[in-house]
Protein backbone atom coordinates (compact mmCIF):
# COMPACT_ATOMS: atom_id res chain seq x y z
CA UNK A 1 0.00 0.00 0.00
CA UNK A 2 1.02 3.59 -0.32
CA UNK A 3 1.76 5.43 2.90
CA UNK A 4 -1.49 7.36 2.48
CA UNK A 5 -3.54 4.17 2.66
CA UNK A 6 -2.45 3.30 6.18
CA UNK A 7 -4.14 5.94 8.35
CA UNK A 8 -7.46 5.63 6.50
CA UNK A 9 -7.63 1.84 6.39
CA UNK A 10 -5.81 0.87 9.55
CA UNK A 11 -2.49 -0.91 9.29
CA UNK A 12 -2.13 -4.30 10.94
CA UNK A 13 0.28 -7.14 10.18
CA UNK A 14 -1.64 -9.93 8.44
CA UNK A 15 -0.32 -13.41 7.72
CA UNK A 16 -1.44 -15.13 4.53
CA UNK A 17 -1.33 -18.86 3.85
CA UNK A 18 -0.72 -19.96 0.26
CA UNK A 19 -3.00 -22.71 -0.96
CA UNK A 20 -2.74 -24.86 -4.04
CA UNK A 21 -4.84 -27.32 -5.95
CA UNK A 22 -3.80 -30.94 -5.71
CA UNK A 23 -3.04 -30.96 -9.45
CA UNK A 24 -0.93 -27.75 -9.47
CA UNK A 25 2.38 -27.16 -7.73
CA UNK A 26 2.22 -23.36 -7.62
CA UNK A 27 -0.14 -21.60 -5.18
CA UNK A 28 -3.56 -20.75 -6.58
CA UNK A 29 -4.22 -18.08 -3.95
CA UNK A 30 -3.36 -16.70 -0.51
CA UNK A 31 -5.70 -16.82 2.49
CA UNK A 32 -5.76 -14.77 5.71
CA UNK A 33 -5.45 -17.11 8.69
CA UNK A 34 -9.09 -16.85 9.89
CA UNK A 35 -10.37 -17.63 6.39
CA UNK A 36 -8.09 -20.64 6.10
CA UNK A 37 -9.48 -21.98 9.40
CA UNK A 38 -13.10 -21.57 8.21
CA UNK A 39 -12.39 -23.49 5.00
CA UNK A 40 -10.41 -26.21 6.79
CA UNK A 41 -13.19 -26.69 9.34
CA UNK A 42 -15.71 -26.72 6.48
CA UNK A 43 -13.87 -29.54 4.71
CA UNK A 44 -12.94 -27.49 1.64
CA UNK A 45 -9.24 -27.17 2.47
CA UNK A 46 -6.80 -29.81 3.65
CA UNK A 47 -3.85 -28.95 5.89
CA UNK A 48 -0.83 -31.25 5.64
CA UNK A 49 1.76 -29.78 7.94
CA UNK A 50 2.54 -26.34 6.56
CA UNK A 51 0.92 -27.11 3.21
CA UNK A 52 -2.66 -26.08 2.48
CA UNK A 53 -4.49 -27.52 -0.49
CA UNK A 54 -7.95 -27.57 -2.04
CA UNK A 55 -8.85 -30.96 -3.51
CA UNK A 56 -9.92 -30.41 -7.10
CA UNK A 57 -11.87 -33.59 -7.64
CA UNK A 58 -15.16 -32.70 -9.28
CA UNK A 59 -16.22 -29.20 -10.31
CA UNK A 60 -13.79 -26.51 -9.09
CA UNK A 61 -16.34 -23.75 -9.72
CA UNK A 62 -18.80 -25.57 -7.44
CA UNK A 63 -16.15 -26.01 -4.75
CA UNK A 64 -15.23 -22.33 -4.88
CA UNK A 65 -18.90 -21.39 -4.58
CA UNK A 66 -19.14 -23.53 -1.44
CA UNK A 67 -16.08 -21.71 -0.11
CA UNK A 68 -17.77 -18.37 -0.82
CA UNK A 69 -20.87 -19.43 1.09
CA UNK A 70 -18.81 -20.53 4.11
CA UNK A 71 -16.92 -17.24 4.16
CA UNK A 72 -20.18 -15.31 3.79
CA UNK A 73 -21.79 -17.23 6.67
CA UNK A 74 -18.70 -16.49 8.79
CA UNK A 75 -19.09 -12.76 8.10
CA UNK A 76 -15.73 -12.56 6.34
CA UNK A 77 -17.02 -11.29 2.98
CA UNK A 78 -20.01 -9.36 1.68
CA UNK A 79 -22.99 -10.74 -0.26
CA UNK A 80 -22.89 -12.09 -3.79
CA UNK A 81 -22.19 -9.38 -6.38
CA UNK A 82 -23.39 -11.25 -9.45
CA UNK A 83 -20.17 -10.68 -11.40
CA UNK A 84 -18.42 -13.92 -12.33
CA UNK A 85 -14.65 -13.66 -12.62
CA UNK A 86 -12.17 -16.11 -14.17
CA UNK A 87 -9.94 -18.21 -11.91
CA UNK A 88 -6.44 -18.78 -13.26
CA UNK A 89 -3.50 -20.72 -11.80
CA UNK A 90 -1.18 -17.94 -13.03
CA UNK A 91 -1.62 -14.53 -14.64
CA UNK A 92 -0.95 -15.88 -18.14
CA UNK A 93 -2.85 -19.17 -17.88
CA UNK A 94 -6.26 -20.07 -19.25
CA UNK A 95 -9.17 -20.00 -16.77
CA UNK A 96 -9.88 -23.22 -14.90
CA UNK A 97 -13.04 -22.07 -13.07
CA UNK A 98 -15.15 -19.01 -12.31
CA UNK A 99 -16.06 -17.34 -9.01
CA UNK A 100 -18.29 -14.52 -7.81
CA UNK A 101 -16.37 -11.29 -7.44
CA UNK A 102 -17.21 -11.00 -3.73
CA UNK A 103 -14.82 -13.89 -2.91
CA UNK A 104 -12.05 -13.06 -5.36
CA UNK A 105 -9.92 -10.90 -3.10
CA UNK A 106 -10.18 -12.80 0.15
CA UNK A 107 -8.98 -15.95 -1.63
CA UNK A 108 -6.04 -14.05 -3.11
CA UNK A 109 -6.75 -15.20 -6.68
CA UNK A 110 -5.29 -13.74 -9.86
CA UNK A 111 -7.42 -10.99 -11.41
CA UNK A 112 -6.97 -8.90 -14.55
CA UNK A 113 -7.60 -5.18 -14.03
CA UNK A 114 -8.00 -2.96 -17.08
CA UNK A 115 -6.86 0.69 -16.87
CA UNK A 116 -7.44 3.39 -19.49
CA UNK A 117 -5.35 6.54 -19.12
CA UNK A 118 -7.30 9.53 -20.44
CA UNK A 119 -4.73 11.96 -21.87
CA UNK A 120 -5.33 15.47 -23.20
CA UNK A 121 -2.62 17.06 -25.32
CA UNK A 122 -1.45 20.50 -24.19
CA UNK A 123 1.10 21.27 -26.90
CA UNK A 124 3.95 19.73 -28.82
CA UNK A 125 6.59 20.47 -26.18
CA UNK A 126 4.59 19.95 -23.00
CA UNK A 127 3.32 16.78 -21.30
CA UNK A 128 -0.38 15.90 -21.55
CA UNK A 129 -2.96 16.53 -18.86
CA UNK A 130 -4.45 13.41 -17.30
CA UNK A 131 -8.04 12.60 -16.33
CA UNK A 132 -8.59 10.98 -12.92
CA UNK A 133 -11.80 9.46 -11.53
CA UNK A 134 -12.93 9.77 -7.91
CA UNK A 135 -14.48 6.52 -6.71
CA UNK A 136 -18.04 6.85 -5.42
CA UNK A 137 -18.70 6.96 -1.69
CA UNK A 138 -20.72 3.73 -1.93
CA UNK A 139 -17.89 1.76 -3.59
CA UNK A 140 -17.26 -1.59 -1.91
CA UNK A 141 -13.50 -0.97 -2.02
CA UNK A 142 -11.56 2.26 -1.50
CA UNK A 143 -14.46 4.75 -1.61
CA UNK A 144 -13.24 8.31 -2.07
CA UNK A 145 -9.95 7.26 -3.63
CA UNK A 146 -8.78 8.33 -7.07
CA UNK A 147 -8.44 5.92 -10.00
CA UNK A 148 -7.25 6.24 -13.54
CA UNK A 149 -10.01 7.54 -15.82
CA UNK A 150 -11.22 3.97 -16.37
CA UNK A 151 -10.42 1.04 -14.11
CA UNK A 152 -12.30 -2.24 -13.95
CA UNK A 153 -11.98 -5.98 -13.54
CA UNK A 154 -12.12 -8.40 -16.46
CA UNK A 155 -15.11 -10.77 -16.15
CA UNK A 156 -14.99 -14.40 -17.23
CA UNK A 157 -16.83 -13.87 -20.53
CA UNK A 158 -14.80 -10.96 -21.98
CA UNK A 159 -11.20 -10.46 -23.01
CA UNK A 160 -9.19 -7.49 -21.72
CA UNK A 161 -9.70 -5.35 -24.83
CA UNK A 162 -13.47 -5.82 -24.80
CA UNK A 163 -13.50 -5.15 -21.06
CA UNK A 164 -11.71 -1.86 -21.70
CA UNK A 165 -14.42 -0.80 -24.17
CA UNK A 166 -17.21 -1.86 -21.78
CA UNK A 167 -15.71 -0.13 -18.74
CA UNK A 168 -14.86 3.01 -20.72
CA UNK A 169 -18.52 3.47 -21.59
CA UNK A 170 -19.86 2.62 -18.14
CA UNK A 171 -17.40 4.70 -16.11
CA UNK A 172 -16.70 7.65 -18.42
CA UNK A 173 -19.21 7.64 -21.29
CA UNK A 174 -16.50 6.91 -23.87
CA UNK A 175 -18.15 5.26 -26.85
CA UNK A 176 -16.70 2.37 -28.83
CA UNK A 177 -15.75 4.60 -31.77
CA UNK A 178 -13.59 6.82 -29.58
CA UNK A 179 -12.05 3.73 -27.94
CA UNK A 180 -10.80 2.60 -31.34
CA UNK A 181 -8.02 5.16 -30.80
CA UNK A 182 -6.90 3.53 -27.54
CA UNK A 183 -3.37 2.11 -27.59
CA UNK A 184 -2.49 -0.96 -25.55
CA UNK A 185 0.65 -0.11 -23.58
CA UNK A 186 1.24 -3.49 -21.99
CA UNK A 187 0.42 -5.90 -19.18
CA UNK A 188 2.16 -5.95 -15.80
CA UNK A 189 1.69 -8.62 -13.11
CA UNK A 190 1.85 -7.24 -9.55
CA UNK A 191 1.17 -8.46 -6.01
CA UNK A 192 0.24 -6.33 -3.01
CA UNK A 193 -1.78 -6.37 0.21
CA UNK A 194 -4.82 -4.31 1.19
CA UNK A 195 -7.57 -4.69 3.77
CA UNK A 196 -9.43 -6.78 1.16
CA UNK A 197 -6.73 -9.42 1.11
CA UNK A 198 -3.71 -10.50 -0.91
CA UNK A 199 -3.94 -9.06 -4.42
CA UNK A 200 -2.53 -10.85 -7.45
CA UNK A 201 -3.29 -8.61 -10.42
CA UNK A 202 -2.42 -8.36 -14.06
CA UNK A 203 -2.65 -4.66 -14.93
CA UNK A 204 -3.67 -4.29 -18.58
CA UNK A 205 -2.98 -0.66 -19.50
CA UNK A 206 -4.25 1.50 -22.36
CA UNK A 207 -3.57 5.12 -23.35
CA UNK A 208 -6.37 7.13 -24.96
CA UNK A 209 -5.83 10.68 -26.24
CA UNK A 210 -9.04 12.66 -25.75
CA UNK A 211 -10.20 15.98 -27.22
CA UNK A 212 -9.66 19.09 -25.12
CA UNK A 213 -13.40 19.89 -25.21
CA UNK A 214 -14.44 16.38 -24.08
CA UNK A 215 -15.43 15.59 -20.49
CA UNK A 216 -16.34 12.28 -18.80
CA UNK A 217 -19.89 11.22 -17.95
CA UNK A 218 -20.30 8.29 -15.57
CA UNK A 219 -23.06 5.91 -16.66
CA UNK A 220 -22.99 3.22 -13.96
CA UNK A 221 -22.74 5.40 -10.83
CA UNK A 222 -19.37 4.00 -9.72
CA UNK A 223 -17.57 7.34 -10.21
CA UNK A 224 -18.42 10.37 -8.10
CA UNK A 225 -16.54 12.97 -10.17
CA UNK A 226 -13.61 13.47 -12.52
CA UNK A 227 -10.63 15.79 -12.38
CA UNK A 228 -8.28 16.85 -15.16
CA UNK A 229 -4.80 17.32 -13.68
CA UNK A 230 -1.55 18.56 -15.12
CA UNK A 231 1.50 16.31 -15.08
CA UNK A 232 2.95 18.32 -12.19
CA UNK A 233 -0.31 17.92 -10.27
CA UNK A 234 -0.22 14.18 -10.95
CA UNK A 235 3.33 14.00 -9.60
CA UNK A 236 2.19 15.83 -6.49
CA UNK A 237 -0.76 13.48 -6.12
CA UNK A 238 1.49 10.44 -6.36
CA UNK A 239 3.74 11.96 -3.69
CA UNK A 240 0.81 12.06 -1.27
CA UNK A 241 -1.37 15.06 -2.14
CA UNK A 242 -4.10 12.69 -3.41
CA UNK A 243 -5.38 9.36 -2.13
CA UNK A 244 -4.90 7.12 -5.17
CA UNK A 245 -5.87 3.45 -5.23
CA UNK A 246 -2.75 1.32 -5.28
CA UNK A 247 -3.18 -0.30 -8.70
CA UNK A 248 -3.97 3.08 -10.24
CA UNK A 249 -1.00 4.55 -8.36
CA UNK A 250 1.28 2.11 -10.20
CA UNK A 251 -0.33 2.92 -13.55
CA UNK A 252 -0.07 6.67 -12.95
CA UNK A 253 3.59 6.32 -12.01
CA UNK A 254 4.11 4.73 -15.41
CA UNK A 255 2.24 7.62 -17.08
CA UNK A 256 4.64 10.09 -15.47
CA UNK A 257 7.62 8.01 -16.56
CA UNK A 258 6.45 7.77 -20.18
CA UNK A 259 4.84 11.19 -20.69
CA UNK A 260 6.20 13.48 -18.00
CA UNK A 261 9.36 14.74 -19.66
From TrEMBL:
InterPro entries: NUDIX_hydrolase-like_dom_sf (IPR015797). This is Thiamine pyrophosphokinase. Keywords: Kinase, Transferase. GO terms for molecular function: kinase activity. SUPFAM superfamilies: Nudix (SSF55811). It comes from the Bacteria.
